[in-house]
């Protein structure tokens, strides 16, 4: 069993109108598809996270998109918000969805719709199923196989991957404001909490950050 990470750019006819909206507006960075109804027919219910702060503009675009039947927005602190959408699939959307919702494949969320027009998706399955999915992907601009490897389980950011001393350093850094914006603490504050040198405290934080970021990016 393997996982494959694909990246492709749908052509103009295949691109979802709301993805096109994100591409055309600098206020938005990307959208991430986190959840969807596994029973996909000519309608689909999906949950997106939209990375951008202009909620009013995004809602206005949704209201003008014919295939969107209903939606509801949940605002978050910061520059992103969640949205649940019920939409009607057109022919292009149905073909694109069918290629990655086969019975012998698992789609690992999130599916990322970048501001440059590209779509990134991770699939898990047998060699034959993955090969068939790649062959059946709708034509676009530059289908890229980003990564193929043995599936080793879901990637996760886990405190258990840190050593006790690294976890202690991270807890001290959070408590003293090292990770706040604006930053209100320094490595010296972490070192004082750990009763060690600043270079040792900095090393603990670097190694902890390396593990956490690696877990976050590496994925399945």
From TrEMBL:
Residue ranges constituting the HTH bat-type domain according to the UniProt record: 162-213
Pfam family, one: HVO_0513_N
Top-level lineage group: Archaea
Assigned keywords, A-Z: Transcription, Transcription regulation
Entry annotated with the keyword Transcription regulation: yes
Annotated ranges, domain HVO-0513-like N-terminal: 16-151
This protein's name: Transcriptional regulator
The organism's taxonomic lineage, starting at the top: Archaea, Methanobacteriati, Methanobacteriota, Stenosarchaea group, Halobacteria
């Amino acid at each position: 069993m393997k996982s494959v990470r694909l990246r492709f750019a749908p052509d103009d006819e295949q691109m979802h109108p709301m993805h096109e909206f994100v591409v055309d507006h600098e206020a938005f960075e990307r959208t991430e598809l986190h959840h969807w109804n596994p029973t996909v027919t000519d309608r689909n219910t999906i949950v997106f996270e939209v990375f951008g702060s202009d909620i009013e503009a995004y809602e206005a675009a949704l209201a003008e998109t014919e295939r969107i039947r209903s939606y509801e927005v949940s605002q978050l602190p910061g520059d992103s918000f969640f949205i649940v959408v019920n939409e009607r699939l057109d022919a292009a959307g149905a073909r694109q969805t069918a290629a990655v919702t086969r019975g012998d494949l698992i789609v690992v969320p999130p599916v990322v719709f970048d501001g440059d027009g590209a779509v990134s998706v991770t699939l898990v399955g047998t060699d034959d199923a993955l090969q068939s999915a790649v062959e059946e992907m709708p034509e676009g601009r530059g289908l890229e196989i980003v990564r193929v490897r043995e599936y080793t389980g879901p990637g996760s950011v886990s405190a258990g991957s840190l050593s006790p001393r690294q976890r202690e350093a991270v807890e001290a850094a959070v408590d003293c404001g090292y990770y706040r914006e604006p930053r209100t603490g320094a490595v010296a504050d972490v070192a004082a909490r750990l009763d060690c040198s600043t270079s040792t405290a900095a090393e603990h934080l670097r190694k902890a950050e390396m593990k956490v970021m690696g877990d976050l990016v590496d994925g399945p």
